[in-house]
Amino acid sequence: MLMAASRLPPAALSLKQFMVRQQVLCLYRGILRAVRQIPNPTDRRYMKEWAKGEFKRNKGEKEEGRD
């Protein structure tokens, strides 16, 4: 008798990883919403690009925090 293969992809996130990912996405969206409130278009564009760059730079980070 054959065992049914798992329906989850091999790289499925654990519950903890999923929750941390959701928190990070919520933080990112909140930052972008706050950036939209900046009145100066040049400053707004700079801050948006800075935030995007920082999140991309830390995309592969595995540690939750560094003290």
List keywords for this structure.
67 residues
How far the N terminus sits from the C terminus, by CA atoms, comes to 52 Å
Helix content: 55-70%
Quote the beta fraction.
under 5%
Number of helices: 2
Report on the architecture of this protein.
The protein is mainly alpha-helical and 67 residues long. The protein has 2 helices and no strands.
List the topology elements.
Layout lengths: L14 H21 L5 H17 L10
Helix pairs in contact: 1-2
Give a quick rundown of the structure.
The chain is mainly α and 67 residues long. Helix content is 57%, strand content 0%.
